[in-house]
Design a protein that fits this description.
Mean pLDDT: 90
Largest sheet: 8 strands, antiparallel
Structural class: alpha+beta
Helix content: 10-25%
Oligomer: single chain
Radius of gyration: 25 Å
Distance between the termini: 21 Å
Number of helices: 15
């Protein structure tokens, strides 16, 4: 699901400038570690009405004051009275009661997260836990007159952070957050710097797609999309100054509305059929686009995200950089990003995919647990969108972020986390099927890496898109630490971590022909009794002509280790 360079840490790439400034004493932001812990959020507001009476009134009008006074785990981004007065002025309202109740409800929910998130956890732009309103909040940094501050959704500054209350934490902000109510089409139209891109979107018929409200299919998968837009200045650098120029260069069928026309594909290639903020792109190697079977590779380099950067046949092909400062613009039906160069569809070749099976969307949203050492969570089959299995409805799939230096050495797993299955066998949890990341069409070797356990299943069959692979996997089998690595590889095993340990093992399940570029299904079927846990680390898809041993995975870390 992710590719990155040796020594890079995905969790540190987007560390905010503002946080660094706080560490080194360069900010004037007030930081208060605790208040009277007997006060819950609503009680805290009542005790400080001179500063927060207007947001308290919003909670009371919407009937949210009562649940914000119950015990739980919440994060509140609390607008000051001045911030709410600014909001009222913006919407032309003289008082709270002049604002429609539905709008107040959406406004209140946008400021609340159902998890405790302190500023220490603002490390990747998007906060992992969505607001109660459903939209994600974006952290950033500003520096005004030498004073550094954390920002929320780009222009609300945190002026007091990490106020601990009985049911969570409060961050005080100087401007009320606004619900993103424009569609992507409307958001693109609203930026005059995107006028040529907007014309291309209209000419090709994609405007209607980008103007649709969000819907959900039978599997609860949303219709959110992400758009990679480019400004007029970027077009001009490529010699494209008008829609006529774009048609002349790209519309080879002279019919931009035809899905096979090159201008239509030009726009479709910039539309990703899922909600991908920069933080999401940073942990992916490839993303699908609306151009049929065409993908964009994503590479993390220092603090930049590069699209389609590769070396092929010894020739380096530079990538297209995403403009971080402009990007992560939330719309009602997706997110908008800006790129710094013009680009077109690139021919793709098989590329490795390192699938960290513990990195599921639902676990990632548990910000207090996900990749926080010493934490554990488990979800039912119905709660996971990209994993399913047969067996007892009562059993759940566990996520384990191992404690550093734990006795079972689980902390040596890549990213320090694993999927934990209690009794992987028929009747409990079996035929465990994962939806893979995007895999480019081609021929691959599939490796399954796990933490050995004597009570795990001793016979597991791997199926790719329902077709069984030839080699069974014995989860009770220790890793070999003595044989030379190339000899071990010839026997269908390898040491996948950067440390030598028999606790982990990696087994070649077989070779598959991936028929189409896209997401596929890989299934683990237990053929034997299992009385204890099975711990799964990584499933690798490596092109058959690639080195199968390197890069290795950084034990307990995020990096890739090259020979």
């Amino acid at each position: 699901m992710k590719t990155h360079l040796k020594g890079f840490k995905l969790t540190s790439v987007f560390i905010l400038i503002a946080l660094a400034s706080m560490v080194f004493g360069c900010t004037q932001e007030k930081y208060k570690e605790s208040t009277d812990e007997t006060l819950n959020i609503t009680e805290f507001l009542r005790a400080n009405e001179e500063e927060y009476s207007l947001f308290l009134e919003i909670l009371e009008v919407t009937d949210y004051a009562s649940f914000m006074n119950t015990y739980g785990t919440y994060t509140l981004f609390l607008p000051t009275n001045a911030a709410i007065e600014g909001f009222l002025g913006d919407v032309g309202a003289g008082s709270i009661t002049d604002v429609p109740l539905e709008d107040l409800q959406e406004l209140a929910k946008l400021h609340i997260l159902s998890d405790v998130v302190t500023t220490v956890e603002f490390n990747d732009g998007k906060i992992a836990t969505p607001s109660l309103q459903g939209q994600f909040l974006i952290t950033g940094a500003s520096n005004i007159n030498g004073e550094s501050s954390i920002t929320i959704n780009k222009d609300s500054r945190i002026i007091t952070s990490n106020l601990e209350v009985g049911n969570g934490v409060i961050h005080v902000i100087d401007k009320a957050l606004r619900v993103a109510d424009k569609t992507l089409a409307e958001t693109i139209d609203a930026d005059p710097e995107l006028s040529l891109f907007a014309e291309a979107v209209r000419e090709t018929g994609w405007y209607d797609v980008l103007d649709q409200p969000v819907t959900y299919d039978q599997d609860s998968i949303s219709s959110h999309v992400s758009v990679l837009a480019q400004t007029n200045a970027i077009f001009q650098e490529a010699g494209l100054n008008s829609i006529e120029d774009l048609k002349a260069r790209y519309s080879h069928l002279d019919d931009p509305t035809n899905p096979e026309d090159s201008l239509n594909l030009f726009v479709a290639y910039r539309i990703i059929p899922e909600l991908d903020y920069l933080a999401d792109l940073a942990v992916k190697s490839v993303v699908l686009t609306k151009a049929p079977l065409e993908v964009i590779s994503v590479k993390l380099a220092s603090d930049s995200l590069l699209l389609n950067e590769e070396t092929f046949n010894g020739i380096f092909e530079p990538g297209v950089q995403i403009n971080r400062a402009q990007s992560d613009i939330t719309a009602s039906n997706g997110v908008l990003h800006y790129v710094n160069d013009n680009f077109f569809i690139k021919k793709r070749f098989p590329a490795p995919v390192y699938f960290d099976v513990a990195d599921q969307p639902e676990y990632r949203q548990l910000s207090a647990v996900f990749r926080k050492p010493g934490n554990y969570a488990e979800l039912a089959r119905s709660e996971l969108s990209e994993v399913t299995w047969e067996g007892n409805e009562a059993f759940k799939m566990g996520y384990l972020a191992a404690a550093t230096g734990d006795g079972a050495q689980l902390s040596q797993a890549w990213h320090g986390d694993v999927v934990e299955l209690l009794r992987h066998r028929t009747g409990v949890i079996n035929n465990l099927a994962f939806t893979t990341p995007v895999i480019i069409k081609g021929r691959y070797k599939i490796w399954v890496s796990y933490r050995q356990n004597a009570r795990a299943s001793s016979s597991v069959r791997v199926l790719f898109n329902g077709e069984a692979l030839p080699r069974l996997i014995n989860f009770t089998e220790y890793g070999n630490t003595e044989l030379p690595e190339r000899v071990l590889e010839s026997q269908g095993y390898k040491r996948h971590l950067s440390v030598t340990t028999s606790r982990f093992n990696s087994r070649l399940a077989g070779i598959v022909e991936v028929p189409t570029t896209g997401r596929h299904t890989i299934t683990l079927e237990s053929l034997a009794y299992a009385g204890g846990q099975s711990w799964i680390d990584v499933i690798e898809f490596r092109p058959v002509d690639m080195d199968q041993l390197y890069p290795k995975f950084e034990a307990g870390g995020d990096g890739l280790i090259y020979e």
